[in-house]
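Chapter summary example.
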Amino acid sequence: MRILVIGSGGREHALVKALAHSSTASALFAAPGNPGTAQLGTNVDIASDDLDGLVTFAEREDIDLTIVGPEQPLVEGIVDRFEDAGLRIIGPSAEAARLEGSKAFANQFMNRHEIPTASFRVFEHDEYNEAVHYIEEVGAPIVVKADGLAAGKGAFVCSTVEEARDALDEIVKERAFGTAGDKVVVEERMVGEEVSVLALTDGSHYVLLTPSQDHKPIGEGGTGPNTGGMGAFAPAPIVDGSLLTRICREIIEPTLQGMQTEGTPYRGVLYCGLMITPDGPKVVEYNCRLGDPEAQVVLPLVESDLVEVFDSLADGALETGSLRAASGAAACVVLASGGYPIQYDTGYDITGVEEAEARSNTSVIHAGTRRREDGSLVTDGGRVLGITARGAELGTAINRAYQAVDLVDFSGKTHRSDIGEKGLAHSSDS
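The structure predicted for these 430 residues follows.
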C-alpha cells in the first residue's frame, strides 16, 4: 500500500515510524516531512496547506491512503477535497473538524448533546465590554480562549481578574492570534487532572489508543505559558478501567452520536482532552487529529498493524477490538529552543542524536529540525526533538528517556525535568 502522511512535525515522524513497521506499507511519503521521516520514506516538497498540490500528488503517485497529521488542513477541508477526487483519506470533513476549529462550536455542541464540560460564555469580537463585565462578574480563577486555531497557545488559565483581562486584550485588542480571536470563549476553570483519550473512528465504530498525559506549560511543575506540549507519557495511571468505561459512555459515544445526528459524521482521530474532576470526566477540548507529543507515546504502544487499522477505518469497516495495545509504558521529553514559546533563534548544530538512538528502546523524533546542504542537522523550530523511550514500567521509560536527553545537545537546549512525575505519583499510590 502506498501511503502519504501530511505534515512536518514530531507527530508525523512518529506516525511514519509506526506505519513503517507494517509489511503492507510498500511506500511511505511525507509532505513536506522532516529529516526524521526522510529516513523512513520519501519527503515531498508540498506544504501541508497546499490542498491542490496534495491532491495532484496523490492522484499522480497512485496513493492508496492519505493520513493527515496537523489540524489546519483538516479545518480547511482537505478531506472533502480528497474525497471529491475519489481519494481515500483519514480525517474528519471540514464540518466535523469544527470540533477543533471553533471552541465556541465545540462548547455549544456539547451543551446540545449533554456532554460534560465547563460552564462558558461566547463573545463576538465587538463584544469586548460585555466580556470584561462577565469576567468581573464571575471572578477568577477563569479561562479565556481564542475561538479558532492558535497552535495550542490560545488558551489562558487565569488566576486573577487582571490576568483574564490581559488575556482578553491579547486576543481581542492585540490580535495576537489573528482571526482565531474573532470570537472569545470565557470558561469556568475546572479543577482536576488532565488526560488525553484518543479514539480512531469510522463514524459509527471506534477503538481506543492508550490514554496518555501531556505537559503543556513550559516550566517545571506546570508553570509559565502554554506550549504545544513539552512531553507526555502513557498509559495514564489515573485512568483505570471503570473511569475509561465512563469516558466512553459519557463523552466519546455521545460525541460520535451527536455528530451523526447533526449530519456531520465524524471519521478519523477524535482527541478528547479531558479534566478528571471530583464530579467525573469533563471535556477541556476536542482535537481532530493525533496529539503532539501524545502521538510519540501512544503509537509505540500499538501492537496491531496500524496500516490495517487505518485501512479498515477508511472503508467504514472498523471493528471494535481490532486495535491491540502493547504492554509496558512510554515517555517523551521534548527538547525545545531557548526562549520558546515566545521568541527563539534557530540554525544551531545538533549533536548526539545517533548516540541517543543507539540506546535500547529509545527513539529520537524530529519536530523542528532541518539538514544543511552538507548533511549536518540543525534546529529549525521551537520544539526541536522528542526523546521517546519505552519500558516495562513507566519509571523505566522515563529514566531511559532522560538518559538519552543528556546525550543530545544544541545551543539554547531547554526541557522540563519533571515529565511523568504525576504518573509515577499515581503508580505509587496504587
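To summarize the output: The radius of gyration is 21 Å.
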